[in-house]
Specification:
Elements (H helix, E strand, L loop, with lengths): L9 E5 L6 H13 L3 E3 L9 H4 L21 E5 L3 H13 L7 E4 L9 H29 L8 H18 L7 H15 L8
Parallel strand pairs: 1-2, 3-4
Antiparallel strand pairs: 1-3
Helix pairs in contact: 1-3, 4-5, 4-6, 5-6
């Protein structure tokens, strides 16, 4: 039995067509849920998200986009309840779709953004969160070490670097990529004599 489809549901896809394995898996997941989708052509990247999603009040912009096609993929969901969104994400995970760096939900805030600007912001957020994840894992490794197994001065330097890294991670919206990278480098330097941390 197929899940009930909400009338306003729509999934916008970029770089996830039938010609790629990942695209085929995404389309299978959408088909399983009965979720309608629309491919975003490159020439529409200067259009607003609201226009691309077929929302009232958003008109087609001229001229059409003629610049280079951004690499990578994007999946943007409109009108999904939390339950349906969770079902879609579970279906994608079941199919081992892998990472899609640009994921978003249509909101009041982003519907007037041009797609190209939205893609840039999603990419920036993905890079920031990836750097955060690396730093978080390094802090966990550092905090899990036994102080008795290392020289006191070296372990104290590592502990201080881990504390600084934790402060950077608590900055929330004020957190920058540069601060995350600097904290990661400091923690790697402090831990280089204690542990092998892959870059």
């Amino acid at each position: 039995m197929k899940a009930r489809i909400q009338n306003d549901e729509l999934v916008l896809l970029y770089g996830l067509g039938e010609t790629t394995e990942k695209g085929q898996k995404v389309l299978e997941a959408l088909g399983e849920l009965g979720a309608p989708y629309r491919q975003i052509p490159v020439e529409h990247l200067n259009q607003t998200l609201g226009f691309a999603a077929g929302m009232a009040g958003y008109e087609k912009q001229e001229p059409l986009y003629s610049g280079p096609a951004p690499e990578g993929e994007a999946i943007i969901m409109k009108g999904f309840s939390q339950e349906r969104l969770n079902a879609l994400l579970a279906s994608l995970q079941k199919r081992q779709v892998g990472s899609i760096a640009r994921k978003a939900v249509v909101t009041e805030h982003n519907r007037s953004w041009k797609l190209l600007d939205l893609f840039s912001e999603l990419e920036r957020e993905h890079v920031l969160m990836s750097a955060y994840d690396v730093l978080y894992k390094l802090v966990q490794v550092a905090r899990g070490l036994d102080a008795a197994a290392f020289e006191k001065a070296s372990f104290e330097a590592l502990s201080m670097a881990a504390a600084k890294a934790e402060e950077v991670m608590k900055r929330g919206e004020e957190m920058t990529l540069e601060a995350l990278q600097e904290a990661t480098a400091g923690l790697r330097r402090a831990g280089s004599s204690l542990i092998e941390i892959e870059k």
